[in-house]
Each structure stands twice: as C-alpha cells, then as structure tokens.
Model the fold of this input.
Amino acid sequence: MNKYTLFTPGPTDIPPDVLKVLSKPIFYHREENFAKLLKEVTDALGKILSSSGKIYFFTSSGTGAMEAACTNILSSKDKPVVALCGKFGQRWLELCKAYRIKPIVIKEDYGKAISPDKIEKVLKKRKSPTVLFTTLTETSTGVLNDIKAFGKITKKFNAYLVVDGVAGIGADRCYQDEWNIDILVGASQKALMSPPGISFISVSKRALKKIQTSTLPKYYFDLNIYEKFREKAQTPWTPAINVLVGLARGLKIILKRGIEKNFLYHQRLGDHTRQRVQKMGLEIMPSRPSNALTVVKMPEDIGATRIIKRVKEKYGILFADGQAELKNRIIRIGHMGNYSIRKMDRALDALAEVLNQWRR
Done:
C-alpha cells in the first residue's frame, strides 16, 4: 500500500494512542467488559454533544445512522422538510425517496449556508408538526449551517429537528439540548479520531415519543430493539468492538483537552489554513466555513485532480477532490481531529510548491 498522511475530510489521520489500543485483543460483546466500554463511550459522547438524550450505536457508516434516524422518526404519511446545500444534505432526500416519502425541499446553492428565513417560511405554512432534516457541516462544500437558529425555529413551530453532524461533531460547536436538536447523527471516523465503522444517533425524550408511532419498515435499525439492549449496556447485533475501543480513546483525548478548548483548537486550525490558502491566491468556497475542513476553489486552467495526485506522489500527503459537479473544481482539506498548526503547514507548503510548479 502507498504510504501517505490523510488530510481528507474523513476518514482522518488517527492519533498514535488510538492506533495502539486498536491492536489490543478482542473480547466478547456479551461480557461485562463490553458493557463497561459502551457506558464509557456513551457518557463521553453525552458530554461532547451536550446531550441528555439516549444514544444508540450502529456498526455502519454515518449513512446507516442517517437511515436509522429517518426510518424511526417518520411514518408513511409524513411530509418532512429537507434543507440541503450539498451532496451530503442530498442524502436525506434520497433516504426519504427510498421509503416513498415525498418531502418539501429547501435548497441552497453549493457553497452557501441554508437560510433560516427560508426554513421559517416553510414551517410556518405547515398545519401540523413536521420533521426538518438538515446538516451541521456540509462536507462536500465545507459550509457550516446555523443549527442554533434552526432549533429556535423548529421549537417555535413544534417541529422536530434531525441533524447530520457526522463531519462537524467535535470540530464545530453543536449543543444538542440547548439547540433543540431532536436527533443528532454522528460517526467515529472524523473529528472523533477513530477508524470508520461505528455510527450513532443521540435522541431526545420528545423524539422518542414520536418514534413509538413510526410506521416505516425497519429491522436492523429498529430503535425499539436497540432500547431493550441499551438498558443492559449492550447492542442487539455484533458491534465493531475494536473500533469502539478506539473511539473511547479518541473521546478521552477530547475530554482531557477540554470540550471548549477543543472547539477553539479546531477554529485556530481552520483560520490558519484559510489564511495560508488565500495567500496562495486561491478562493475559499463556503460563505460560512466549518472548523472541520477548508474547501478551496481551483482555477479552471489548473484543475484539482492533477494537483491532488501530484501532492500525494511527491510529498505523501492526500487531499480530497470535489464530488459530482464539483469534481476537479475544488480541493477539500481536512483538519478535524489529529492535526496541529505545524502539521497543517507541512501539507500547505506541499500544496503551495506544487501550485507554483504548475503556474510556472
């Protein structure tokens, strides 16, 4: 395998302490050791999410947890609202369509944050409480949405707020209870500094009541089954045990640093990266950038794909290309989790050198 350091927006580079515990011998998931591990991870996540809700874990990517949120809170006759501004927000729309749900769609141009006013205008017309699906950090464009404002609006109209926080949790502020988030979706492989394989949802008491009335089909993601096992600090199906061990260590690193200090740390990384990129004469894409990643527009005469390939081959540093219509038009630079100013400078120096070579 080629050796390179990840500067992608997920999966991200993993700290040595986490890598070390991943190699420990596996243990049985029906023993007390696993119950202790699950409780440790649950308690740590509750603090980081600022949540008093119940947390359920899945052996899946973040998309699995999104599907769990969708199938458990919706019923066949519901008409939710999907507010999106990129490819990952589009996933909420695709999930609804997969279950023959026809949502109302609020869409912003790529690079722009979703307007709270647009959400209020739509929810105001709803005659009964609805569900709003949206995204904290849109990984395809690097934009950060104003979830706090969304929470105020959904509370005003007695709606339910479901947020994909996979890319933002741990890097961007997101306070579930205070911001009136009913379901918050997350995963292990980004700012929480562990490998892919575990996803989760944190569910408010209010949302749990609506979940009891859901009529959509489900089995693997049925929270009624998960709840019976959650009470025993277990999961119904075989979990990714060693990934949970790594996640526990990643969460411990965050808590040791301090939750607020961790947000400020990511803010400094993001600000520094964007300043460096702008000095290269490049334009930042999002109007409201996330702390988790920096998305850079590339000049048409250069293109992103070959620059990314050259940086990887020459310097062993991997950035991410754009997706769908943004392919070859942007470079996505991840700085969530196990990064430092010094580490970012090494990657950005490599990018600057390759850009200079192409410009000459």
Summary: The CA atoms of residues 96 and 252 lie 35 Å apart.
